Amino acid sequence: MIYPRVALIGLGLIASSMAHAMRAGGLAGEIVGYAKSAETRAIAKELFCDRVTDSAAEAVKDADLVVLAVPVGAMGAIAAEIGLHLKPGATVTDVGSVKQAVVDAVAPHLPAGVHFIPGHPMAGTEYSGPRSGFATLFQNRWWLLTPSESTDPQALARLRQLIEQMGAKVDTMDVAHHDLVVAVVSHVPHAIAYTMVGVADHMRRVSQSEVIKYSAAGFRDFTRIAASDPTMWRDVFLTNKDAVLDILGRFAEELFVLQRAIRMGDGDHLHAYFTRTRAIRRGIIEAGQDTAAPDFGRAVPTGKEG
Ligand code: NAP
């Protein structure tokens, strides 16, 4: 056991996956949970929490590790509520997809003697809520931590041990660098997927039934990303504004270059560009971050799935 008592604030995809993984590995003595709605709390109690409470303040009482697993925009209010109820020496971490905004919102509410180590598991699905979690979500995925120079090394080592025993690999980096990296690998790709699905939705020359019928040609993969939780993604774009706008600007420039190459019939340019992008895909497979199976290893649905 790594932490005798863990409090999960927010009981959706990430928190429920953590709870399942901690239970599978015997990593926590007791898992206490709190989420906004009574319905979510009841499901969590049934599926993965030893105990749920009626307030966040109550949930963190005597907890050795507190995990903030709510949308980024809700972190500050939760921190304000729990600050005075934290056990001295406890570690507080979060799983938010943006780090600078979370540090700004949370750190001022935490008392001295509590270790705040912001984090971000680079794993997820397009599903949300307390029923969507599973123990292997973090398996072989990266989990980024953004400790500061004053972070207690022992508290950091303990949190790292928990994460590694849940199956993930840990990297540490500074907060600003984190926000730029995730803008490239996650936030802007989501913005593009949302936009492409929006374009198809507005295309009246292509009927809705054709968009769906022929979706396996590429569109389907955009729709999976664009089905991600609206609250979470609203908060991501509102709070990682600078990095996202920087990368979106670069994206728009690249798109214009591509557009021009197509207009001018510059086949050499297109071929060289697509050769470079294909190498990036190969690198992702070699790094174990996806499978090389065609169609992302997905079976063709039979229509009989549950
Ligand atoms: P989720 O499945 O939508 O769950 C969010 C949870 O937060 C729900 O239990 C919700 O309670 C609770 N909540 C929302 N506002 C609250 C408040 N004011 N007070 C208390 N509880 C509140 O979300 P998730 O996917 O687990 O994401 C959680 C965090 O992880 C987010 O910060 C997100 O950026 C980050 N993250 C997500 C992914 C991903 O792919 N999904 C990946 C990495 C990191 P109710 O159910 O009662 O509404």
Describe this structure in words.
It contains 12 helices and 8 strands. The chain has helices at residues 13-25, 38-47, 56-59, 75-82, 100-106, 153-165, 175-202, 208-213, 219-226, 230-239, 241-263, 267-286; strands at residues 3-9, 28-34, 51-52, 65-68, 91-94, 115-121, 142-145, 169-172. Strands 3-2-1-4-5-6-7-8 form an 8-stranded mixed β-sheet, sandwiched between helices. It is α/β, with parallel strands linked by helices. The protein has 2 domains: 3-173, Rossmann fold (3-Layer(aba) Sandwich); 177-292, 6-phosphogluconate dehydrogenase C-terminal like domain (6-phosphogluconate dehydrogenase C-terminal fold). Helix content is 49%, strand content 13%. The longest helix has 28 residues, at 175-202. The structure holds NADP nicotinamide-adenine-dinucleotide phosphate (NAP). Residues 10-15, 35-37, 40, 69-72, 74, 78, 95-97, 120-121, 124, 128-129, 229, 232 line the site of NADP nicotinamide-adenine-dinucleotide phosphate.
